[in-house]
Design brief:
Oligomer: heterodimer
Number of strands of chain A: 11
Number of helices of chain B: 13
Largest interface: A-B, 38 and 39 residues
Order of helices and strands of chain A: EHEEHEEEHEHEHEEE
Structural class of chain A: alpha+beta
Number of strands of chain B: 17
Largest sheet of chain B: 9 strands, mixed
Shape of chain A: globular
Strand content of chain A: 25-35%
Distance between the termini of chain B: 53 Å
């Protein structure tokens, strides 16, 4: 089944959530979905008419790549989990809710393990993008203002390490849950 | 790593004798016994070659960039270890010691299980297999067809060259192969591609009806795989001359149909990973005759040692083999257009790669 191309209003709704969560201001390209849960991004030159022409002649298996998944939280609010590639495509725009792994946590994360948090956790309200390259600090942006002091209420955080983007994790009081798919995990 | 000894079938040896002089044949036989070198292509959609090189060096890997004009192509010569002893050879070049550290081989699977690979910073690909896209020279904003795209090494290479602009249609037939293609496109962050599933010939027939034409087409055709003996032990077991004949027919049909959906002035690269002339020069010769006046073959510059396409091929070797019970049928002498010499043959012993064949043709009308 060829995925449906999101219309302007639907795309804006996704962008609004991404802006709220991660500070993203623009999505270049088409967003597509099969079920309004998983979203794909296509940044090629074909317009809807050309895709439709192809589709009439040949079964289309996939357009673009997996970008994000929308989940509904306990407060019945839509929240977005960016895929690894989603976070990499958007990396220059992501300004908040970033969790910077330390050296030891990177391998653990890529093995698919959750990250247990301890006293080393620091909460910073302002994220300086240029710091990302060098910092070892664990941080969660906008935590105080949005979570009423409880940063984990934010849920999804972008996982990074020295400029590498690893997709999204889900923050709770003591841990960050991992969504790295099995096929993308380190094997030992 | 213990390697299975490759035993070439007598008929394949006879055929290779016709393509190579005795000294080359000896080198050919020697090199196919050795594992292929670890070559990767930096995925410039995600990281630049200098940054990747730095990351890999920091892991302790020894990196070589063999071509100045293609810094994205890298060879992993091994890794440095203070503890472990030197094991066997490093690539073909031997063993080494640098700065008091031993240079050892990467472990099996290590290249595909690194953080950088999982993040899509590089693609593990033999250098010979990168040549089709170097020949194709895709430009930004072009509409490009990769007709037999799985597993996606060349699709991802095109996407990197055009920086995710234009559109690539990546087609293949098998569902399982399409899944691998899809996973590779995702890992490499390829966002300009539409994946379709159709038999290559039917794909072209159907697309022709839509009026959509392509600026560039890659026909990296299914083949007997004689060039992949170093990495695929099974190929030496499965090889037989009847397959070559039927593949040659299929490849000609594929080319004929693909050419129909190429834009005027558009270019098509035909490549295989086999040495069999029936699947290579014979297909190119067929294309030049079939589309006489509408097609021309182009000269291609590749960054390693290549040999001209052959213009004569005789498969009469079967006559004497028949006495020994190997062959069933007689062969014929074939003469190809002199233009076919513009095709490039890549032998494993010339560059320490896999074997390959590549030709570039242009639709002039």
């Amino acid at each position: 089944m060829t995925p449906k191309i999101l219309n302007k209003i639907e795309k804006e709704e996704i962008l609004k959530i991404l802006n709220e969560q991660f500070g993203i201001e623009k999505i270049n390209g088409m967003l597509l979905t099969n079920n309004y849960e998983k979203f794909f991004i296509y940044q090629g030159s074909f317009k809807e008419e050309e895709i439709s022409k192809i589709e009439k002649a040949i079964p289309i298996e996939k357009i673009g790549i997996y970008f994000a998944k929308v989940e509904v939280n306990k407060e019945n609010k839509k929240r977005i989990r960016l895929s690894i590639e989603g976070s990499q495509i958007m990396k220059n725009q992501i300004t908040k809710n970033i969790f910077e792994l330390n050296e030891e946590q990177v391998k653990d994360w890529l093995k698919g393990n959750e990250i247990l948090l301890n006293d080393n956790l620091k909460v910073n309200k302002d994220i300086n993008k240029s710091d990302l390259e060098n910092t070892q600090t664990i941080r969660v942006g906008d935590a105080v203002s949005l979570g009423g002091g409880r940063w984990w209420d934010l849920g999804f955080v972008i996982i990074t390490h020295k400029g590498d983007f690893f997709g999204t994790g889900k923050a709770s009081e003591n841990k960050i849950s991992n969504f790295i798919p099995k096929s993308r995990r380190l094997k030992k | 790593m213990k390697l299975k000894k490759i035993v070439l079938k007598p008929l394949l040896i006879e055929r290779m004798k016709k393509l190579l002089n005795p000294s080359d044949l000896g080198r050919f036989k020697k090199v196919i016994e050795k594992p292929p070198q670890n070559s990767i292509r930096c995925n410039t959609l995600k990281i630049n070659p200098e940054k990747l090189k730095e990351k890999l060096i920091n892991k302790g890997w020894k990196i070589k960039q063999p071509f100045k004009d293609y810094p994205e192509i890298m060879i992993i010569e091994g890794k440095f270890s203070e503890k472990e002893p030197i094991i066997s050879h490093i690539g073909v070049g031997g063993r080494g010691k640098e700065g008091g550290k031993n240079l050892i081989l990467l472990e099996p699977g290590e290249l595909g299980n690194s953080l950088e690979h999982l993040l899509g910073y590089y693609y593990v690909q033999d250098i010979a297999s990168m040549l089709s896209i170097i020949a194709l020279k895709p430009n930004k904003n072009e509409i490009i067809l990769d007709l037999c795209a799985s597993p996606g090494s060349k699709t991802t290479q095109i996407a990197a060259k055009v920086e995710n602009t234009g559109t690539i249609i990546a087609n293949d037939l098998s569902i399982s192969r399409l899944q691998i293609l899809s996973a590779n496109l995702e890992r490499c962050g390829v966002t300009n591609t539409i994946i379709t599933r159709k038999d290559a010939i039917k794909f072209c027939e159907q697309v022709k009806k839509t009026g959509i034409l392509f600026d560039k087409i890659l026909l990296d055709a299914p083949c007997s795989g004689e060039g992949t003996l170093r990495s695929s032990y099974r190929t030496s077991l499965m090889w037989n001359s009847n397959t070559i004949k039927s593949l040659s027919k299929l490849q000609k049909k594929m080319f004929k149909n693909a050419f129909e959906i190429l834009k005027p002035q558009g270019e098509i690269v035909y490549s295989t990973c086999t040495h069999a002339p029936e699947e290579n020069e014979e297909v190119v010769d067929f294309a030049l005759k079939e589309f006489k006046g509408k097609i021309k073959i182009e000269k291609i510059n590749l960054p390693l040692k290549t040999r001209k396409g052959i213009i004569e091929w005789s498969s009469n070797y079967l006559n004497h083999l028949r006495v020994g019970g190997w062959g069933k049928e007689g062969g014929t002498d074939k003469k190809f257009s002199k233009e076919v010499e513009k095709s490039c043959r890549i032998y494993p012993h010339d560059n320490n790669t896999e074997g390959f064949f590549v030709a570039k043709l242009k639709k002039i009308k």
